[in-house]
Amino acid sequence: MWTPGARSLKRVLSPALELRGLTKRYDDGFLALDAFDLVVPAGEFFGLLGPNGAGKTTLISAVCNLVRVTAGDVDVFGHPHGTSEARRLIGLAEQDVNLDRFLDVEETLLYHGGYYGMSRADARRRAKEMMDVFDLRAKAKVRAPKLSGGMRRRLLLARALMHEPRLVILDEPTAGVDFELRLELWRYIRRLHEEGTTILLTTHYLEEAEELCEDIALIRGGRLLARDTAAGLREAFAADTLADVYVKAMATA
Ligand SMILES: Nc1ncnc2c1ncn2[C@@H]1O[C@H](COP(=O)(O)OP(=O)(O)OP(=O)(O)O)[C@@H](O)[C@H]1O
Ligand SMILES: [Mg+2]
After folding, report:
1. Structural domains in the chain (count)
2. Which residue owns the Cα nearest ligand 1 atom 2?
3. Has residue 150 been placed in a domain?
4. With a 6 A CB cut-off, is 53 part of the ligand 1 pocket?
5. Which tens digit of pLDDT belongs to each residue from 157-213?
Protein backbone atom coordinates (compact mmCIF):
# COMPACT_ATOMS: atom_id res chain seq x y z
CA MET A 1 0.00 0.00 0.00
CA TRP A 2 1.23 3.50 -0.79
CA THR A 3 1.76 5.57 2.31
CA PRO A 4 2.48 9.24 1.90
CA GLY A 5 5.51 10.74 3.59
CA ALA A 6 5.05 13.49 6.14
CA ARG A 7 5.59 16.21 3.55
CA SER A 8 3.15 14.91 0.99
CA LEU A 9 0.63 14.07 3.71
CA LYS A 10 0.76 17.68 4.81
CA ARG A 11 0.01 18.69 1.22
CA VAL A 12 -2.88 16.26 0.87
CA LEU A 13 -4.43 17.79 3.98
CA SER A 14 -3.44 21.37 3.21
CA PRO A 15 -6.03 24.06 2.62
CA ALA A 16 -6.43 25.22 -0.95
CA LEU A 17 -5.28 28.66 0.04
CA GLU A 18 -3.59 30.04 3.12
CA LEU A 19 -2.65 33.70 3.50
CA ARG A 20 -0.62 34.78 6.50
CA GLY A 21 -0.10 38.47 7.09
CA LEU A 22 -0.46 39.23 3.40
CA THR A 23 0.36 42.89 2.89
CA LYS A 24 0.49 44.82 -0.35
CA ARG A 25 1.65 48.39 -0.56
CA TYR A 26 1.72 49.66 -4.14
CA ASP A 27 4.69 51.66 -5.39
CA ASP A 28 2.82 54.94 -4.89
CA GLY A 29 2.51 54.11 -1.17
CA PHE A 30 -1.13 52.97 -1.21
CA LEU A 31 -1.79 50.16 1.28
CA ALA A 32 -4.20 47.82 -0.56
CA LEU A 33 -3.92 44.80 1.77
CA ASP A 34 -3.17 45.14 5.43
CA ALA A 35 -1.75 42.00 7.10
CA PHE A 36 -4.47 39.80 5.68
CA ASP A 37 -5.02 36.30 7.12
CA LEU A 38 -7.31 33.86 5.34
CA VAL A 39 -7.68 30.10 5.02
CA VAL A 40 -9.80 28.57 2.28
CA PRO A 41 -10.23 24.82 2.89
CA ALA A 42 -9.73 22.45 -0.02
CA GLY A 43 -12.94 21.78 -1.93
CA GLU A 44 -14.78 24.86 -0.74
CA PHE A 45 -16.86 27.27 -2.80
CA PHE A 46 -15.61 30.55 -1.37
CA GLY A 47 -16.86 34.08 -2.00
CA LEU A 48 -14.77 37.22 -1.58
CA LEU A 49 -17.07 40.23 -1.41
CA GLY A 50 -16.45 43.92 -0.97
CA PRO A 51 -16.91 47.29 -2.63
CA ASN A 52 -14.82 48.72 -5.48
CA GLY A 53 -11.29 49.22 -4.25
CA ALA A 54 -11.63 46.79 -1.30
CA GLY A 55 -8.55 44.85 -2.37
CA LYS A 56 -10.13 41.75 -3.94
CA THR A 57 -8.22 41.85 -7.21
CA THR A 58 -5.04 42.81 -5.36
CA LEU A 59 -5.43 39.73 -3.17
CA ILE A 60 -5.98 37.51 -6.19
CA SER A 61 -3.07 39.11 -8.06
CA ALA A 62 -0.82 38.49 -5.06
CA VAL A 63 -1.87 34.83 -4.89
CA CYS A 64 -1.17 34.42 -8.62
CA ASN A 65 2.17 36.26 -8.54
CA LEU A 66 0.90 39.06 -10.75
CA VAL A 67 1.90 41.65 -8.18
CA ARG A 68 4.84 41.56 -5.81
CA VAL A 69 3.85 40.94 -2.21
CA THR A 70 5.13 43.51 0.31
CA ALA A 71 5.01 41.13 3.28
CA GLY A 72 3.44 37.85 4.34
CA ASP A 73 3.10 34.34 2.96
CA VAL A 74 0.78 32.65 0.53
CA ASP A 75 0.49 28.87 0.19
CA VAL A 76 -1.54 27.00 -2.40
CA PHE A 77 -2.30 23.42 -1.33
CA GLY A 78 0.78 23.64 0.87
CA HIS A 79 3.09 24.98 -1.85
CA PRO A 80 4.50 28.51 -1.62
CA HIS A 81 2.69 30.54 -4.28
CA GLY A 82 5.83 31.36 -6.26
CA THR A 83 6.57 27.70 -7.03
CA SER A 84 5.70 26.03 -10.30
CA GLU A 85 3.58 23.45 -8.39
CA ALA A 86 1.43 26.23 -6.95
CA ARG A 87 1.10 27.96 -10.32
CA ARG A 88 -0.05 24.74 -11.98
CA LEU A 89 -2.73 24.19 -9.35
CA ILE A 90 -4.42 27.54 -10.01
CA GLY A 91 -6.67 28.54 -12.89
CA LEU A 92 -7.34 32.27 -13.00
CA ALA A 93 -9.95 34.20 -14.93
CA GLU A 94 -8.95 37.81 -14.38
CA GLN A 95 -11.35 40.70 -13.98
CA ASP A 96 -9.73 42.46 -16.93
CA VAL A 97 -10.07 40.47 -20.11
CA ASN A 98 -6.51 39.93 -21.27
CA LEU A 99 -6.35 37.89 -24.44
CA ASP A 100 -3.65 37.73 -27.08
CA ARG A 101 -5.15 39.61 -30.02
CA PHE A 102 -3.16 37.60 -32.56
CA LEU A 103 -4.45 34.19 -31.46
CA ASP A 104 -7.78 32.68 -32.44
CA VAL A 105 -9.99 30.92 -29.89
CA GLU A 106 -8.57 27.46 -30.42
CA GLU A 107 -4.96 28.68 -30.46
CA THR A 108 -5.54 30.61 -27.24
CA LEU A 109 -6.58 27.39 -25.53
CA LEU A 110 -3.86 25.24 -27.11
CA TYR A 111 -1.07 27.70 -26.22
CA HIS A 112 -2.30 27.81 -22.66
CA GLY A 113 -2.33 24.00 -22.51
CA GLY A 114 1.22 23.92 -23.86
CA TYR A 115 2.35 26.50 -21.33
CA TYR A 116 1.01 24.29 -18.56
CA GLY A 117 2.77 21.20 -19.90
CA MET A 118 -0.21 19.40 -21.44
CA SER A 119 0.54 17.03 -24.30
CA ARG A 120 -0.70 18.16 -27.70
CA ALA A 121 -3.33 15.43 -27.80
CA ASP A 122 -4.59 16.25 -24.31
CA ALA A 123 -4.66 19.96 -25.10
CA ARG A 124 -6.64 19.35 -28.32
CA ARG A 125 -9.16 17.15 -26.54
CA ARG A 126 -9.56 19.57 -23.68
CA ALA A 127 -9.77 22.63 -25.97
CA LYS A 128 -12.66 21.00 -27.84
CA GLU A 129 -14.38 20.22 -24.56
CA MET A 130 -13.95 23.80 -23.35
CA MET A 131 -15.21 25.26 -26.65
CA ASP A 132 -18.30 23.07 -26.32
CA VAL A 133 -18.91 24.02 -22.70
CA PHE A 134 -18.59 27.73 -23.45
CA ASP A 135 -20.33 27.56 -26.80
CA LEU A 136 -17.31 28.79 -28.76
CA ARG A 137 -17.06 25.99 -31.33
CA ALA A 138 -18.34 28.20 -34.16
CA LYS A 139 -15.68 30.81 -33.30
CA ALA A 140 -12.72 28.41 -33.08
CA LYS A 141 -10.80 30.20 -35.86
CA VAL A 142 -11.77 33.75 -34.88
CA ARG A 143 -9.25 36.05 -33.17
CA ALA A 144 -10.06 37.71 -29.86
CA PRO A 145 -10.65 41.26 -31.19
CA LYS A 146 -13.41 39.89 -33.45
CA LEU A 147 -15.31 38.24 -30.61
CA SER A 148 -18.14 39.96 -28.78
CA GLY A 149 -17.44 41.14 -25.22
CA GLY A 150 -19.32 38.20 -23.70
CA MET A 151 -17.52 35.74 -25.97
CA ARG A 152 -14.17 37.13 -24.82
CA ARG A 153 -15.27 36.56 -21.24
CA ARG A 154 -16.25 32.98 -22.16
CA LEU A 155 -12.83 32.41 -23.70
CA LEU A 156 -11.15 33.78 -20.61
CA LEU A 157 -13.06 31.26 -18.49
CA ALA A 158 -12.37 28.41 -20.90
CA ARG A 159 -8.66 29.26 -20.80
CA ALA A 160 -8.61 29.37 -16.99
CA LEU A 161 -10.06 25.86 -16.84
CA MET A 162 -7.94 24.38 -19.66
CA HIS A 163 -5.31 22.70 -17.47
CA GLU A 164 -7.85 21.34 -14.97
CA PRO A 165 -6.69 23.39 -11.99
CA ARG A 166 -7.60 22.33 -8.44
CA LEU A 167 -8.18 25.93 -7.40
CA VAL A 168 -10.24 28.04 -9.78
CA ILE A 169 -10.17 31.78 -9.14
CA LEU A 170 -12.89 33.81 -10.83
CA ASP A 171 -12.64 37.58 -10.49
CA GLU A 172 -16.10 38.89 -11.39
CA PRO A 173 -16.72 36.24 -14.02
CA THR A 174 -20.31 37.27 -14.73
CA ALA A 175 -19.67 40.97 -15.36
CA GLY A 176 -21.09 41.69 -18.82
CA VAL A 177 -22.22 38.15 -19.37
CA ASP A 178 -25.69 37.36 -20.76
CA PHE A 179 -28.38 35.63 -18.73
CA GLU A 180 -28.01 32.29 -20.49
CA LEU A 181 -24.26 32.09 -20.01
CA ARG A 182 -24.62 33.03 -16.36
CA LEU A 183 -26.89 30.04 -15.79
CA GLU A 184 -24.66 27.84 -17.91
CA LEU A 185 -21.52 29.06 -16.18
CA TRP A 186 -22.89 28.47 -12.70
CA ARG A 187 -24.14 25.03 -13.63
CA TYR A 188 -20.65 24.15 -14.87
CA ILE A 189 -18.81 25.71 -11.92
CA ARG A 190 -21.15 23.91 -9.53
CA ARG A 191 -20.34 20.64 -11.21
CA LEU A 192 -16.61 21.35 -10.96
CA HIS A 193 -17.09 22.10 -7.31
CA GLU A 194 -19.03 18.85 -6.78
CA GLU A 195 -16.10 17.03 -8.35
CA GLY A 196 -13.80 18.49 -5.70
CA THR A 197 -12.44 21.67 -7.30
CA THR A 198 -12.01 24.62 -4.95
CA ILE A 199 -13.63 27.81 -6.20
CA LEU A 200 -12.68 31.35 -5.16
CA LEU A 201 -15.16 33.84 -6.53
CA THR A 202 -15.52 37.59 -6.40
CA THR A 203 -18.79 39.13 -7.49
CA HIS A 204 -20.93 42.19 -6.89
CA TYR A 205 -24.06 40.07 -7.40
CA LEU A 206 -24.86 39.29 -3.80
CA GLU A 207 -27.74 36.92 -4.59
CA GLU A 208 -25.31 34.91 -6.69
CA ALA A 209 -22.86 34.68 -3.81
CA GLU A 210 -25.61 33.84 -1.33
CA GLU A 211 -26.79 30.97 -3.47
CA LEU A 212 -23.43 29.55 -4.49
CA CYS A 213 -20.87 30.16 -1.79
CA GLU A 214 -20.42 27.90 1.22
CA ASP A 215 -18.28 30.46 2.93
CA ILE A 216 -18.05 34.21 2.43
CA ALA A 217 -15.47 36.83 3.39
CA LEU A 218 -16.47 40.50 3.46
CA ILE A 219 -13.54 42.81 2.92
CA ARG A 220 -13.03 46.52 2.79
CA GLY A 221 -9.98 48.78 2.81
CA GLY A 222 -7.69 45.76 2.58
CA ARG A 223 -9.02 44.22 5.78
CA LEU A 224 -11.28 41.30 6.61
CA LEU A 225 -14.56 42.49 8.14
CA ALA A 226 -16.35 39.18 8.57
CA ARG A 227 -16.16 35.63 7.39
CA ASP A 228 -18.80 32.94 7.75
CA THR A 229 -21.45 30.98 5.89
CA ALA A 230 -24.26 33.07 4.41
CA ALA A 231 -26.56 31.80 7.20
CA GLY A 232 -23.93 32.60 9.86
CA LEU A 233 -23.50 36.13 8.49
CA ARG A 234 -27.26 36.72 8.38
CA GLU A 235 -27.50 35.66 11.99
CA ALA A 236 -24.48 37.66 13.17
CA PHE A 237 -25.76 40.82 11.47
CA ALA A 238 -29.45 40.17 12.28
CA ALA A 239 -30.22 40.49 8.57
CA ASP A 240 -32.69 38.75 6.26
CA THR A 241 -30.49 38.59 3.20
CA LEU A 242 -26.81 38.73 2.35
CA ALA A 243 -27.46 42.11 0.74
CA ASP A 244 -28.66 43.40 4.13
CA VAL A 245 -25.58 41.90 5.79
CA TYR A 246 -23.39 43.64 3.25
CA VAL A 247 -25.01 47.03 3.80
CA LYS A 248 -24.72 46.70 7.59
CA ALA A 249 -21.14 45.45 7.50
CA MET A 250 -20.01 48.24 5.21
CA ALA A 251 -21.82 50.90 7.23
CA THR A 252 -19.99 49.91 10.42
CA ALA A 253 -16.59 49.44 8.75
N1 LIG B 1 -1.00 49.47 -9.53
C2 LIG B 1 -1.58 50.13 -8.53
N3 LIG B 1 -0.97 51.19 -7.96
C4 LIG B 1 -1.54 51.86 -6.93
N5 LIG B 1 -2.73 51.53 -6.38
C6 LIG B 1 -3.37 50.48 -6.92
C7 LIG B 1 -2.85 49.72 -8.02
N8 LIG B 1 -3.72 48.76 -8.31
C9 LIG B 1 -4.74 48.90 -7.47
N10 LIG B 1 -4.55 49.91 -6.63
C11 LIG B 1 -5.44 50.38 -5.56
O12 LIG B 1 -5.65 49.34 -4.62
C13 LIG B 1 -6.99 49.38 -4.13
C14 LIG B 1 -7.62 48.01 -4.30
O15 LIG B 1 -7.81 47.78 -5.67
P16 LIG B 1 -8.38 46.38 -6.18
O17 LIG B 1 -8.31 46.37 -7.65
O18 LIG B 1 -7.69 45.28 -5.45
O19 LIG B 1 -9.91 46.48 -5.67
P20 LIG B 1 -11.13 45.48 -5.92
O21 LIG B 1 -11.62 45.09 -4.57
O22 LIG B 1 -10.75 44.42 -6.85
O23 LIG B 1 -12.21 46.46 -6.57
P24 LIG B 1 -13.28 46.21 -7.77
O25 LIG B 1 -14.52 45.68 -7.11
O26 LIG B 1 -13.51 47.59 -8.30
O27 LIG B 1 -12.69 45.29 -8.78
C28 LIG B 1 -7.70 50.51 -4.90
O29 LIG B 1 -7.74 51.66 -4.07
C30 LIG B 1 -6.82 50.72 -6.10
O31 LIG B 1 -6.86 52.06 -6.56
MG1 LIG C 1 -11.36 43.86 -8.71
Report:
1. 1
2. 26
3. yes
4. yes
5. 999 999 999 999 999 998 878 888 888 889 989 999 999 999 999 999 999 999 999
